[in-house]
Amino acid sequence: MSEIKNKTVLITGATSGIGKSCAKVFAREGAKIVLAARREKLLSEVAEELKREYNAQVFSVVMDVKKHSSVKKAIDSLSGEWRNIDILINNAGMARGLEKVQEGTIEGWDETIDTNIKGVLYVTREVLPGMIERQNGHIIFLGSTAGHDVYPGGSVYCATKFAVKALAQATRIDVLDKYVKVTSVDPGMVETNFSNVRFPDDPERAANVYKGITPLTPDDVAETILFAASRPRHVNLNQIIMTPIAQAQSNFIIKKPV
Ligand code: 8X3
């Protein structure tokens, strides 16, 4: 895909799930990959894998998207051509628990809001001015079906993904005359570490989330992101909602008995 070869792609949350799949898929297409995530050891492991499997050019930055100082330090550490980010994949995101509002935990709310809303804003704020200056760039937001329909116990997570939808739409308007593309890719059920993070003390509950359906894989989402990123310069895919065939929207899922 000529649109992707030699492009510089920064991926947040790049060491697992959809982020790691994006790193592989874009490396396969010849992109230069900037991996951003919190854990240095995992970053080096993914970087080594990309170099070994795809002969990719890779640069890793330790970044905790929840902290603006960490985001700024990571972006400032990019030098030379690595600074010229063509594609930003705002992937880092998470959820904690499935409690009703009246029973929710403040710590879980803070973490979810800080990662999914403020994190996305911090990274976008640091990367977007360079894209505007170069009159070239593409920001891909990872939204969710949870940003379109709420479900029981999903209050804060859904609110953050509604916010991501709003941020994507508003950013698209803000850069309309700047030759920067903005896409939101909004998946439903994808089997990643997501449910283990959501239910850290209940692995059985986490495993049950995907029982009885064939969920999307991280690669399904990454290939869709690649498709969006590889359209001709004049084409912008605004929003892509994708679900497993057994899911119509957030809370309409047909599960086979297991
Ligand atoms: C998708 C997660 O819980 O809404 O972002 O299916 S969930």
Can you walk me through this structure?
It is a single chain. The protein contains 8 helices and 9 strands. The chain is α/β, with parallel strands linked by helices and 258 residues long. It has a single domain, classed as NAD(P)-binding Rossmann-like Domain (Rossmann fold, 3-Layer(aba) Sandwich). The strands form 2 sheets. The protein has a 7-stranded parallel β-sheet, with helices on both faces. Strands 8-9 form a two-stranded antiparallel sheet. It is globular. The N and C termini lie far apart (41 Å). The site of 2-hydroxyethylsulfonic acid (8X3) has 6 residues, from loops. 2-hydroxyethylsulfonic acid binds next to loops.
Unreliable stretches covering 5 or more consecutive residues: none
> What is the architecture at the second tier of CATH?
3-Layer(aba) Sandwich
Number of helices: 8
The CATH topology turns out to be Rossmann fold
Number of domains: 1
CATH class: Alpha Beta
Order of helices and strands: EHEHEHEHEHEHHHEEE
Rounded mean pLDDT is 96
- Binned, the helix content reads 40-55%
Distance between the termini: 41 Å
**Distinct ligands:** 2-hydroxyethylsulfonic acid
The description of the largest β-sheet is:
7 strands, parallel
